[in-house]
Design brief:
Blueprint: E1 5-11, E2 15-21, H1 25-36, E3 41-47, E4 57-62, H2 68-94
Antiparallel strand pairs: 1-2, 2-4, 3-4
């Protein structure tokens, strides 16, 4: 499994635009949807410019109360927490423990 490669397209306090190299809709959608739940995010979305390219560009824009990069960090932390909980639940299910 190779690591995620990121190309930073734009970074300011209020806006972050990154390209997720050789990723697909899964990671772009996850970041955008979770960022939208943040109270200081005005806009979060991703786009894949061309279907054959397959590298989503994610944009996060905040109201300026928090930095867009901090929102991305929060999204990554929350994603890790959720993933760990899911893995624990699945482990319990497949080991026969009560959930």
């Amino acid at each position: 499994m190779s690591g995620v490669r990121i190309e930073v397209k734009k970074i300011t306090d209020k806006e972050l635009v990154i390209k997720l190299i050789n990723e697909d809709h899964t990671l772009g959608n996850l970041i955008a949807k979770m960022a939208l739940k943040h109270p200081h995010v005005k806009m979060a979305a991703y786009v894949i410019e061309h279907p054959l390219e397959g590298s989503p560009t994610v944009r996060i824009i905040t109201d300026g109360e928090v930095k867009a990069l901090d929102v991305l960090k929060d999204v990554i932390k929350e994603s890790k927490t959720i993933s760990s909980k899911i893995l624990e639940l699945l482990s319990n299910i497949f080991s026969g423990k009560e959930v």
